[in-house]
């Protein structure tokens, strides 16, 4: 008998329904535009049916927030946003801005965590001048559109910055237990080489 079919597995599933029902009930009421008792109960019922009928796979996250590394991550992100905003403004306003050369750059992340992939993709897209246009989940690869890239060296420099961002994310909040090399607190790269 699998864990999901055992009595304790069913109890865990029923307990996991409650945290999901509350936000789904709120969304239901917002869609109807009224927080009445009937709408709250109907939203909770619909939420329970959705969560039980379409269970999400369990996430095996081993998040270990580190305040100092988190401060570095946020600080560096704010600096990147400000610097990139100024750079994009200058790029679009300078003479000859109509002849910009843009690029699609592939970045293969080092960690196998979908959580880290998502966080890095979101943070990278929030930096002006770059946006994630595609994600290859099986290979943990991001495809980014970059503004004003004039050489392979500039593309490589941006790729390096994304990988450094990934390392800061893993150092700040982790992802999976095996994402971090315990001796160095750096992401583990397959084969021991950087791509």
UniProtKB/TrEMBL annotation:
Mode of membrane association: Multi-pass membrane protein
Record has Transmembrane as a keyword: yes
InterPro entries (UniProt xref): Cation_antiport_E (IPR002758)
Keyword Cell membrane included in the entry's annotation: yes
Predominant place of localization: membrane
Membrane-spanning ranges: 21-54, 69-90
Localization: Cell membrane
Highest taxon in the source lineage: Bacteria
Family of this protein: Belongs to the CPA3 antiporters (TC 2.A.63) subunit E family.
Alphabetical list of PANTHER family matching this protein: NA(+)/H(+) ANTIPORTER SUBUNIT E1, NA(+)_H(+) ANTIPORTER SUBUNIT E1
Name assigned to this protein: Na+/H+ antiporter subunit E
């Amino acid at each position: 008998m699998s864990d999901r079919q055992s009595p304790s597995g069913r109890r865990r599933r029923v307990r996991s329904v409650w945290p999901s029902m509350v936000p789904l009930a709120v969304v239901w009421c917002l869609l109807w535009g009224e927080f009445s008792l009937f709408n709250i109960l109907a939203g909770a019922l619909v939420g329970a049916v959705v969560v039980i009928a379409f269970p999400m796979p369990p996430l095996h996250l081993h998040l270990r927030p580190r305040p100092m590394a988190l401060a570095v991550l946020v600080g560096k992100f704010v600096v990147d946003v400000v610097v990139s905003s100024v750079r994009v403004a200058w790029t679009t306003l300078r003479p000859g801005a109509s002849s910009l050369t843009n690029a699609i750059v592939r970045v293969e992340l080092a960690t196998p965590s979908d959580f880290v992939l998502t966080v890095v993709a979101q943070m990278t897209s929030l930096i002006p001048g770059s946006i994630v246009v595609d994600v290859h989940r099986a290979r943990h690869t991001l495809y980014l559109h970059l503004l004003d890239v004039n050489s392979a060296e500039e593309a490589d420099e941006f790729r390096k910055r994304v990988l450094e961002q990934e390392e800061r994310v893993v150092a700040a909040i982790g992802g999976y237990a095996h994402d971090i090399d315990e001796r160095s607190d750096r992401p583990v790269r397959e084969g021991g080489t950087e791509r």
